[in-house]
Amino acid sequence: MTMNPTAFLDALLALPGLSMPKVSPDGRWVAWVWLRAGPAADVYAAPTDSAAPPVRLTDTADNTWLVGWTPDSRSVIVSQDRDGNEREQLFRVDLARPCVMQPLTEADPAYFIRGGDLHPNGRWLVYGANLDLATGAEIEPTCVIRHDLTSGARITLARPEQGGWNWPQLSPTGDHVLYARSDRDPAGSQIWLVDIDGANDREIYNAGDKLQADANWFPDGQRVLIVADSATHRRVGAWSLADGSLQWLIDDPARNIEEAYVPYGSREVVVLEVRSARLHALLLDPTTRQETPLALAEGNLHPLAPLADGAWVGSYYSARQPVDVVRFLPDDLNPAHFVSLTGVWSRTALTPADLAPAEDFRWRGDDGLEIQGWLYRAQGAPRGAIVYVHGGPTAHSEDRLNIQVQFFVRNGFHVLDPNYRGSTGFSLAFREAIKLDGWGGLEQADIRAGIEALMAAGLASPGKVGVTGTSYGGYSAWCAITHCPPELVAAAAPICGMTDLVVDYATTRPDLRPLSAAMMGGTPEQVPDRYRERSPIHFVSNIRGRLLIVQGLMDPNVTPANVHAVTAALQDAGIEFGLLAFADEGHGIIKPANQRRLFTALLEFFAQAL
Length: 610
Description:
Oligomer: single chain
Strand content: 25-35%
CATH topology of the domain at 356-609: Rossmann fold
Structural class: alpha+beta
Number of strands: 36
Strand order of the largest sheet: 29-30-32-31-33-34-35-36
CATH architecture of the domain at 356-609: 3-Layer(aba) Sandwich
């Protein structure tokens, strides 16, 4: 299809972005969040038998996110904040009364909520909050809270000793709550269990002080599935509530397990193994250890839950396939036979042929470590190259549709999306390598080496490379423009990126502060030199390229204090810059009206700069 740039942007912004798909406990419904289906993110649901189109469950001016299902499968729990400030209020929405949001917690609280599980008795709500109930003060640790929805009374079931965040998980039986602590070291996490009355709070698994572990319930509520770091790899095990025994189901140094869980209605464990940033899902029988691979030859299939008729529900996606929720048969993995439950393609004029594929692109870091990224080739004569850096940094870019990347490609730019060291999706050693010298070190050299590899491949020219990204991607854009000559990086557009790591540590959400300490090897008081050396604000006098700063003014994660500090430094150094601020956005620019403004501004900026 031939479209002019405006029409193509219209079509991209009409294409909903799907996240957080969750199947109801009875398997009859699946709910998800759609971005760009309205003025803000909203929650939808559809029957898993594909007998009816999606139902819109929320319709509001602020972003609304799916938390989970109620035990009776008749309602969903959702959260909503104000303009991205992340101070979320929880609501219940009944399938029988769509768009009627029943408040469960207070609006715009002075603390941050994680999760929200409704007890089988329908009265208690369990969630995490960095709140001291005795004083009403916001604190660094995330406590496990039991909230009586009838009386309004709240009690603290568990309070970690150190800061950090966790997402408490109520057992299907309603008797216990799983949660994580990082009391021993901010880089590690241990699995804890507390009774629903707050008694018998105890550690049930510790992989090591600086090693991480995740856990979730089997549907029977009597076992816990644990995915934990070892010295060399991640392994999957089943822990018994009855006797405290732990049996490892997968313990193979050659495998890169990212996630595992047991859906309602399933006797099999869904295991997500990732190889070179490509998803290889499988079903694991915990008794026989037999594995059933579910990986596709092209694209990604993420199994969610089985259905009574033998089919499964899963999410299916690639760079040319928007994330869709589909019905599929485990013995028939032909995408042409998948049944869409969302009808996503009917909401846009685009077709797969209008979208650029993700190509595997590899290079070597300064120390010889192989780095992978996704290359998207410009349509028509190239105008330059843009490096789009993912956030996290503990995450990875997939073969997945990104409308910002596609907009750049359609308008004549090659795009490289690097999975620098510190990214997930490769190995535990690769993920942990960013901690060897902290943020702003070898991983930024990986990004620079990727630019040099683009040039060596004839895909970029000196003076015609720009860098952008959100969150840690924004920090990386700052690092690039302050440390690379204009021949290598001629322009940067950091979005919600850290500029002064000391300011960021002091002003970020209290429950997120330990992440900085874990990645930097300590707090600003413990390793002040490293925080200074890795803060782009101290190197703004080096900038010789073009700079556009983008910030959500409600961002509680990388706060506007980062921008206030760096703009003063830029003015003192006589460096010109542009500033694009969004009063109704937080950590990332999400609302479609704002994305239109952002994408248009970025295109104009890079077109002029490159």
